[in-house]
Amino acid sequence: MKRFFGLFAVIALLLSACGGGGVRSPDFLSQLVGLEIQSTAGNPVTGVQTLAPSATLQLKAMGLYSQPPGASSATKPGAVDGVQWASSAPTIASVDANGLVRGLKRNATPVTITLSKAGQTSVSVDVKVDGPVMKELVVTVVTPSPATHVPVGRTFGLTVSAKCSANLAAGSTTTACSVASAYTYSWVLDALTPAGSADAPAPVQGQSTQVKTKKFVTASNPIKVNVSAVNEEGDTVPGSINLTTDPAVIDSIVVVEQQGAAEPIAIARGTQKILIAKGVFSSGETRDITAADLKSGTKLSWAKDASAVGDVTLSDQTATTAPNNTIVVSGVTVGATGVTATGQNNEATARDLSDRAAINVVTANLVKLTSAVPANGAAARVINGGKIQYVAMGIFTDEPTAKQVDPVAYPLDWATVDGTGKATVDTAGLVTGTAVGTVTVSASLQAGVANGIVGADRTGSGPLLVTDAVCTDPFLQATGATAASAVDTSVQTFCLGCAASNSGNVIDANVTNFGSFTIGPNALMQDGHMSMTFVRPSSATVSGQKVGVVIKYDSTQIDAPEQIITVTALNGATDVTNGATSLTTFSSGNVGYVLAQAPVKLGTVDTVKIDITMLSLLNRGPGALSDLLSLGGSANIDVYSACAATQPPPAAP
Fold first, then answer.
1. What architecture (CATH level 2) is domain 250-357?
2. Full strand arrangement of the beta sheet holding 265-268
3. Using CA atoms, how far apart are residues 560 and 621, in angstroms rounded to an integer?
């Protein structure tokens, strides 16, 4: 019995070594016996796989290898090389060398994806391409929503939405794609869009764009905007929209002066100007406003600034009809102010319109010239050879009474018309009598000045009488002329009173009353003094005032004096005031004044009448009067406007 049990154990050991009955062979070699398609998760892929267009499916190639006897399965998957992938319909679904399957076109029949290797039996899997595909593009207007028409010059805001066919079973039925932004959209104006009617869409790519209109177009020939995008199947899907425009509308208004004057608009006090409100339209043009441009049943309203330095009045608006786009503005008070126009445009949602024009009310304008008269109210009379200043008079917008015209503001041309006498006039209105008798002096507005004044209103004229002087030559005391007083009777004096142009032989504040004489050879007195005597009106009172005289001399013949000496006789007494300490000398050029400081005696008496003033000129420099006269020459001297005043007398003509 023991012998039989040992034999049985030997047999069992041998069987185990041979692999039978769980016995493994130490010499087993695994071999590739087949192929298998797996997912990326390592699971065998079986059945029909569904793949949406443009989607991908990654397949994995595996080899099946034999297992030793007694293994749990006959084969075991493992890596394999040298395989090939293939699609039965590569236009429906493609597969690359790495097993990446891509859906291209939806198709009811599955596509077979095959894995093969030389010497092995190929395997395959069926893939059906089906799922959402974008089939339609719909363009809508988002601004102004939802209109497909806007006024010329306005901008459309456009957006596109994509519609998809869910699957093959849905047929032509489309619904909004789940991710519309997944597509790349391209915008362009259609080739049939009227030239110049709109700017190109901007931006040219993206789900939204803007299109600015530029011309009026109708539905029969609209602005057509195209959009396109490539769908999941690689097809270009188009979309479009037709846009039309309405006539341009007012975006804003601007108030201007009707004749185009720039702001601030100047309106002379007492005058009127017309303001007009112009429309700045959506098309970019600025033009007159019509009633149709405004909200139905409305018109523009006008108002002046409620509180301002200047002031104006506005023409009555109660009876005006639309558009009421003009207003008459009258200047009242000088200063700055403003006028504002307001209204609403004709859009469905009316836009408020407003603009203010700055106004500056200025001093009055000249209406017309009325006359030419002597300056400072002087008599219209001049001695033969003498001079008199004329000025122009005119009516201005602010008052009916004539007043002097400023030749700077209103440049003038002067002329004389000879009557029984003769005279000349320079460009500044200074008239010189040249022959005894009557003369007409006229001033006219220069060409281009105040063009609104026309005809006879552009000229003003007045008379002038040219007379003989009472005496034509100065008299020396030695020849019988009587000096009213003399400081030094040994010094000969010139009597100018007899050369004055009035019957009283007075040189006074009237600039037409002056002495004019020529200093000839041998007229110079000892020590270089020359004296001139004139008589003041006895009514002149000068308490605490200064004595003044205006002298005009020929600068071509006499240099400016080095020193001027006045000699004053007061109520029979004589004072002498010398030099620059007591005088204000010539102001400039050959016209100046001498204003003598009042002697002490003037300050001690309440009322003093000046009887005589004697004026001496002293000039001993090169080219001096003494040199001129000693050589036999002569010099012309005019003395004007002796006066007693705190201010210098008026300048000589």
1. Sandwich (2.60)
2. 265-268, 352-362, 335-344, 301-304
3. 10
**pLDDT value, residue 44:** 94
Q: What kind of fold does domain 133-246 have according to CATH?
A: Immunoglobulin-like (2.60.40)
**Lowest-confidence range among 41-55, 123-137, 143-157, 573-587?**
573-587
Q: What is the C-alpha separation between 474 and 517, in angstroms, rounded? A: 6
Model confidence pLDDT, tens digit, residues 307-349: 899 999 999 988 889 999 999 999 989 999 999 999 999 988 8
Pairing of strands 186-189, 236-246: unpaired
* Beta bridge mates, 171: none
First to last CA, the chain: 177
> By CB neighbour count within 10 A (0-12 exposed, 13-18 middle, 19+ buried), where does 436 fall?
middle
CATH fold group of domain 32-129: Immunoglobulin-like (2.60.40)
Which pLDDT score is estimated for 500?
Answer: 45
17: left (phi over 0), alpha (psi -120 to 50) or beta: alpha
User: In the chain, what are the domain boundaries?
Assistant: 32-129, 133-246, 250-357, 366-467, 475-645
CA distance 567 to 582: 11
Contact (Cβ atoms closer than 8 angstroms) between residue 520 and residue 390 = no
Work out the percent of the chain whose per-residue pLDDT is above 70. Answer: 68
pLDDT of 269 reads 85
Say which residues have a Cβ less than 8 Å from residue 52's Cβ, sequence separation at least 6.
103, 129, 130, 131, 132, 232
CATH architecture of structural domain 366-467: Sandwich (2.60)
Measured CA to CA, the distance from residue 296 to residue 298 in angstroms comes to 6
Sign of torsion, CA 146 151 156 161? positive
Provide the 3-class DSSP secondary structure of residue 620. coil
Q: Kindly tell me the sign of the dihedral angle through the C-alpha atoms of 549, 550, 556, 559.
A: positive
Question: How far are the Cα atoms of 14, 24, 62, 438 from residue 68, in angstroms, in the given order?
Answer: 18, 7, 19, 155
Per-residue pLDDT reduced to its tens digit, 265-310 = 999 888 889 999 999 999 899 999 999 999 999 999 999 999 899 9
The Cα 115–Cα 40 span in angstroms is 15
Per this entry, what is the length of the chain? 653
Give how far the C-alpha of residue 208 lies from the chain's centroid of Cα atoms, to the nearest Å: 36
pLDDT score recorded for residue 165: 92
Q: Give long-range contacts, CB 8 A cutoff, 24+ apart: 436-441.
A: 436/384, 436/466, 436/467, 436/468, 437/465, 437/466, 438/463, 438/464, 438/465, 438/466, 439/463, 439/464, 439/465, 439/466, 440/416, 440/464, 441/372, 441/390, 441/414, 441/415, 441/416
Q: Is the pLDDT of residue 244 over 70?
A: yes
- Count CA atoms closer than 13 A to 210's CA, side-chain side: 7
Q: Report the side by side order of strands in the sheet with 123-129.
A: 49-51, 123-129, 111-116, 84-87
- Please, what's the largest Cα pairwise distance for the chain? 207
CATH number (2.60.120, 3.30.590, 2.60.40, 3.40.630) of 475-645 reads: 2.60.120
